[in-house]
Design goal:
The structure holds two protein chains of two kinds.
Chain A lengths: L2 H34 L2 H8 L5 H19 L3 H30 L9 H29 L4 H36 L4 H31 L5
Chain B lengths: L5 E11 L8 E9 L3 E5 L6 H7 L11 E9 L5 E3 L6 H10 E4 L10 H11 L5 H14 L3 H4 L12 H13 L5 E5 L7 H14 L4 E5 L3 H7 L2 E6 L2 E7 H6 L4 H7 L5
Helix pairs in contact in B: 3-4, 3-6, 4-6, 6-7
Chain lengths: 221, 263
């Protein structure tokens, strides 16, 4: 294979990792902003997300030109198809993060104690997401070691299971409290919805990890 | 005056073979960029090899062909020379030193590996043995064949494999420090491994020379070249950056050809 081709493949990997890193920065900022319940910090969370669409388009166009110019085969073909599918997941993650942050503006020093408690408990989901993002970036850079790839993919699975469990606990607790008080708190139900949407990010990361396994190890999409 | 990045400029060029009424090439306009690889693609008989051969006047080995228009070769100071105005045999030899050609079938001379490369240098008037030795060595290194030949420089070049012979021919051309190298389907007679080696070599060579390559292999044109010209029935249909030709061609004819709908 020509170096030119390999350089382009490397460029795709690097640009994709860069998008994931932007998403990770945004998640970390979100965690800090919500922990502090500081509405001013919420604005900063959106900054890394602003260029995601353009970066995703760049990766898509790069892959398109690789198909047109280098006719990738076998492992290279799998990798390019996988990355092409991954970019739409990345775009959706960015959208999820944007919506999540928009809705989490309900968190402020004036919010009720219950609300603040649920939000605080839900931050474990954000921490799991950050870990899963770190593992995904590691998977992008790991092109050879199949065992390490499988290990990283299973770590992402674990983080996903953890978020499911955390959400179930929060939901159960919240509903029990409502039942006890004989009161339906619309705001609280909405909050659960936003938290659930945030936990979807990790589902998409699981999709990305399975695409990377397909790219590097093979099998079916 | 050409822009600094142009090494050759073909303007309104017509070419007619001896004894034929109609021109085989009609009003061709094509710039050749410096230190870039330009690929010429098109179905058999479209005139791509004819155009390539006109670029170092190799057609003049046979009498009676007629040229019209201009093929300008630009020097390092930007001075231009219309190569179609050359008439003397000596001028043709000088031109072919500046614009070398590699053919489809490797054409080593029936002499030693060393002499194959040194031959052109001697013809160019270089007499100093030390200089010849150094330039032969450098040319073989530049053509990525030094390691395989350094211990058998005095052995016949005919004992080399097809791929090695082709790289030797490239070394022979490179030794003369040409400005442009013309490749006429240089890998069509080679296996995939030798093809890969030649392609890598061509990609390396463009640091020092401008390359024009005629190929029937579309993948070779797409992965190797910076610019691509598509020709059909003696016309230049489209010329653009390779990425545009293979991703967004402007002409339907180009698209039909590269997608295999004809040709």
């Amino acid at each position: 294979m020509l170096n030119k081709n390999e350089q382009k493949l490397r460029e795709v990997r690097e640009k994709t990792a860069e998008i994931l890193e932007d998403l990770m920065i945004s998640q970390k900022l979100a965690l800090q902003a919500i922990e502090a319940c500081d509405s001013k910090s919420f604005e900063q969370v959106k900054v890394p997300l602003k260029t995601i669409n353009k970066k995703v388009d760049d990766v898509d166009n790069l892959i398109l030109s690789i198909f047109a110019l280098y006719s990738p085969e076998a492992r290279d073909l799998r990798e390019m198809v996988a990355f092409l599918k991954m970019t739409s997941s990345l775009q959706r993650i960015a959208m999820n993060e944007k919506n999540y942050m928009k809705n989490m503006e309900i968190c402020n020093p004036e919010s009720g104690e219950d609300m603040r408690r649920v939000i605080k408990e839900s931050l474990s989901i954000n921490r799991c997401t950050i870990k899963a993002l770190e593992y995904t970036v590691e998977m992008i850079h790991e092109t050879e070691d199949k065992d390490k790839l499988k290990d990283l993919a299973s770590k992402i699975d674990v983080e996903n299971s953890k978020t499911d469990d955390i959400y179930s606990l929060i939901e159960k607790d919240t509903l029990q409290r409502m039942h006890k008080d004989h009161l339906i708190n619309e705001e609280m139900l909405n909050l659960l919805k936003y938290i659930r949407k945030n936990s979807k990010i990790i589902d998409r990361l699981e999709d990305i990890s399975s695409r990377l396994i397909f790219a590097r190890i093979g099998g079916k999409l | 005056m050409a822009k600094n990045n142009i090494i050759m400029d073909i303007k309104d060029f017509d070419f007619t073979y001896a004894g034929v009424d109609d021109p085989s090439l009609k009003k061709i306009n094509l710039p050749i960029e410096k230190n870039k690889i330009t690929a010429m693609i098109g179905p058999s008989g479209c005139g791509k090899s004819t155009l390539l051969r006109a670029m170092n006047r190799i057609h003049d080995l046979y009498p009676g062909n007629t040229y019209e228009g201009e093929i300008n070769l630009y020097g390092s100071e930007g001075e231009k020379q219309n190569i179609l105005e050359l008439k003397k045999e000596n001028d043709f030899i000088k031109l072919r030193q500046k614009v070398g050609m590699i053919f489809q079938k490797p054409t080593p001379f029936p002499m030693s590996i060393f002499d194959n490369v040194a031959y052109g240098l001697k013809l160019a008037g270089i007499k100093d043995k030390v200089e010849i030795e150094e330039r032969v060595k450098k040319a073989l290194k530049d053509a990525a064949i030094w390691k395989e030949t350094k211990d058998r420089l005095n052995k016949s070049a005919l004992g080399l494999s097809g791929g090695q012979q082709q790289r030797l021919c490239i070394a022979r051309a490179v030794a003369l420090k040409p400005e442009v190298l013309l490749f006429d389907e240089p890998t069509s007679a080679l296996d995939p491994i030798s093809t890969g080696a030649i392609e890598e070599l061509i990609a390396e060579l463009k640091k020092d020379v401008s390359v024009v390559i005629v190929t029937h292999n579309m993948q070779q044109a797409s992965r190797l070249s910076d610019y691509t010209a598509f020709m059909y029935l003696g016309d230049l249909i489209e010329y653009d950056k390779t990425e545009n030709i293979f991703l967004n061609p402007s002409e339907k004819l180009t698209e039909d050809y590269i997608t295999g709908r004809f040709g």
